[in-house]
Design a protein that fits this description.
alpha/beta; 10 helices; two-stranded antiparallel sheet
Length: 301
């Protein structure tokens, strides 16, 4: 069966079905009766079955016509809902942005300040959550865009890498490794290690790097916050590996940071989006800004 009908034919069909008469339906729709008749005839040819039984004083739906009536009403409602949502989206001045905790407090203050100076009319609602929850919420359309670290193993979502960020070693002041300017991964093998809970993707980045180097640090504590890791390090509970952006904001004199020699642990910061959802023009503006921000960040390295 061919399906080359259009929405106007559906609208005309509904009008005739409701009025039960071609003349009345034509008058209510503001078109001529011959034009309405041709539209219905074309729809019937497409379907291959008559939709109305022509009677002396009007028309009556056939069995196929009754079936189509149900679907036609659903199509009309779906179209109405779609345009209502598009209208609402076009008038919305808010971006729903999800960010993982190991990025949000370090990257967002700078990003949002600069973006707001360009587009003061656009509001950004920030939702901080773990990668697993963000992926689910992105799939469900609860957020417009996300900033997180790769990898993201979800085939129906779209990732756009922005920049790579180096991970650095953090040790307490006076630690045995403080005298080393460059650290080899084998140097940390025997020291107690503090890591984030396994629900955080940063743990996966670090574990993968250590596995490639055949190193398994002795983990003694796990926590959910980078700031807690930094405080535990200062209290000499152990050492850790954290993103460089967390180091840049650390003003404490009780912690020392060192880069790794040779292959360096990194994580890739990326945008995450559901490509099957409607993209508001404000989201497109923010994505373009993030690309520019990423290029600027890369040039400074």
């Amino acid at each position: 069966m061919r399906t080359d009908f259009d929405l106007q034919q559906i609208s005309n069909f509904l009008a005739v079905a409701k009025a039960g008469n071609f003349t009345l339906a034509a008058a209510e729709n503001g078109i001529s009766q011959p034009a309405l008749s041709r539209s219905i005839q074309k729809l019937e040819r497409t379907i291959g079955e008559p939709l109305f039984e022509r009677q002396p004083r009007g028309v009556k739906l056939t069995e196929i016509g009754s079936f189509l009536l149900v679907r036609a009403n659903q199509i009309r409602d779906l179209v109405d809902d779609t345009f209502a949502e598009l209208n609402e989206a076009s008038n919305r001045v808010q971006i729903r942005l999800a960010v993982i905790p190991t990025i949000a407090p370090y990257l967002l203050p700078t990003v949002l300040k600069k973006f707001r100076s360009r587009h003061p009319e656009i509001k950004i609602q920030v939702q901080e959550d773990t990668t697993q929850n963000i992926v689910r919420r992105c799939k469900d359309g609860e957020v417009d865009l996300a900033i997180l670290a790769l990898p993201v193993n979800e085939k129906y979502l779209e990732t756009e890498p922005l920049f790579d960020e180096e991970l650095v070693l953090v040790i307490p002041k006076g630690h045995a490794l403080e005298k080393k300017k460059r650290i080899r991964l084998s140097d940390i093998q025997d020291f107690p290690f503090i890591s984030l809970d396994q629900q955080h993707c940063l743990s996966d980045n670090i574990a993968e790097f250590c596995t490639r180097q055949s190193i398994a640090p002795v983990t003694i504590e796990r926590t959910n916050q980078l700031t807690t890791i930094q405080e535990l390090v200062a209290l000499q509970h152990g050492i850790s590996i954290i993103p460089a952006m967390a180091q840049q904001l650390d003003k404490s004199k009780q912690r020392v940071y060192r880069r790794f020699a040779g292959e360096k642990p990194v994580r890739t910061i990326a945008l995450l989006q559901n490509p099957y959802r409607y993209e508001h023009r404000f989201v497109a503006l923010f994505k373009q800004y993030m690309r520019e921000f990423a290029n600027e960040t890369t040039r400074k390295k």
